[in-house]
Amino acid sequence: MKIADIAIVGGGPAGLSAAIYAASLGAKVTLIDDGLELGGQLIKQTHQFFGSEKQFAGIRGIEIAQKLIQGSIKYKNIESITNATVTGYYEDGVLTIVQGVNGDILKKLKADRIIVATGASENMLPFVNNDLPGVYGAGAVQTLMNLYGVVPGNNVLMVGAGNIGLIVSYQLMQAGIQVEAIVEALPKIGGYLVHAAKIRRLGVPIYTSHSLKEVYGNDCVEKATIGELNKEFEFIPGTEKELEVDTICLAVGLSPLSDLLWQADCQMKYIPELGGYVALRDDNMKSTKDKIYIAGDVAGIEEASSAMLEGQIAGLNAAVSLGCKCDNYKEQDKKLKAELKELRDNPLSEEIKIGIEKALIKKGRD
Q1: CB under 8 Å to 200, separation ≥6 — which residues?
Q2: Percent of the chain predicted with pLDDT > 70
Q3: For residue 114, which of 43, 22, 34 has the smallest C-alpha distance?
């Protein structure tokens, strides 16, 4: 049985930030991640971040990952377990961890506090022949290109015009791959217009109120049919367009990866503004279970900058709840929460703020 003050499940931007903050206050931290290395989605992100200088504005995601990883290495009270999956949370608070390529190493971990920062999983889309080789999620495309230097195909149809769809489309074009079109089911683009403008300047059409209807091919994707949608999101007959593509990239949203929180019997609620079922929490990122905190996309789908701040808030408060000394705790706590509020103070974060309000446990309210 391994013992830690704080176990952090997930080594992405939220988990790493939580680990560094908690360790800086003297907590013994064990950080578990299923990747071969820490960093989560950051290690795939070659684009520069927006926001403030405090949240790494102007720095590429891959560089932010290295900064956070190096920041965690300098603390001897952080133990990292990679290539490992937390498979269970038991009534006595013990976590079971399966590690190794074949999953043949079993570990048990007992911690006084747990921070769940497991991130999110990609949503898929039902359409005819969606199981043909050549159909990818956007995260898989980023993994192939930005981690392993492998192009997914030559002619791509991108489904989804949120930030992920737009950014990955641009990265595909940087790699010399033809993006035939981007389709978006909603009547307007969901991502930042600066990303969309770059795409359009390069001659790629973005069809709003359109979606993918069918894919054709024998052994792999060979062509696809898209069509216009009405207000009820039904295909309008006669609007079909056929595209010669060998790759379909799906960027149709994310869902919080909350299995562990369900298993721990945290109070959960479906909040569409946050991407699905999330754990209710207080403003310290503590769930309805006293020992369990949350941070990052598992708390609600948002930007990595917000995930890092949530991680810091969770790391600070989890450590202080264990008795770790923080001379200026109130000032630090207030500062981090003010930064997070400022980060969300823009029109594109309105839905996030509505979702957070629904998920927040307030004094005197269930």
Answers
A1: 206
A2: 98
A3: 22
Q: Are 307 and 18 in contact (CB under 8 A)?
A: no
User: Three-state DSSP class for 249?
Assistant: strand
CA dihedral angle for residue 192, residue 193, residue 194, residue 198, rounded to 10 degrees: 120
**Helix, strand and coil in the chain, % to nearest 5:** 35, 30, 40
Residue 299 main-chain phi, psi, to 5 deg: -90, -10
User: What would the two tokens of residue 348 be?
Assistant: 């594109």
Say whether pLDDT at 91 is over 90.
no
Cα dihedral value 188, 184, 43, 303, nearest 10: 30
- The CA angle 89-10-53, to the nearest 5 degrees, is 145
For residues 133-138, average pLDDT: 96
C-alpha gyration radius of the chain: 21
| Residue 264 vs residues 8, 90, 306, 358, 360: alpha-carbon distances, Å | 14, 7, 24, 21, 19
How far apart, in whole angstroms, are the C-alpha atoms of residue 65 and residue 275?
A: 24
The pLDDT score that the predictor gives to residue 365 is: 44
Q: What is the pLDDT of residues 210-261, one digit of tens each?
A: 999 999 999 999 999 999 999 999 999 999 999 999 999 999 999 999 999 9
Residue 165: is it exposed, middle or buried by C-beta count within 10 angstroms (0-12/13-18/19+)?
buried
Residue of 42, 6, 14 lying closest to 298 (CA atoms): 14
Single-letter amino acid, residue 179: V
Rounded Cα distance between 361 and 73, Å, is 34
Q: Are strands 94-99 and 105-116 parallel, antiparallel or unpaired?
A: antiparallel
Band of pLDDT at residue 52, cut at 50, 70 and 90: low
Give the residues across from 172 on adjacent strands.
Answer: none
Please provide residue 254's backbone torsions phi and psi, each rounded to the nearest 5 degrees.
-130, 155
Q: What is the largest CA-CA distance in the chain?
A: 68
What's the whole-number mean pLDDT along residues 193-212? 94
Structure pTM? 0.92
Q: Are strands 210-216 and 223-228 parallel, antiparallel or unpaired?
A: antiparallel
Question: Per the structure block, which two tokens stand in for 274?
Answer: 């946050």
CA dihedral (349, 67, 70, 117) in degrees, to 10, reads 10
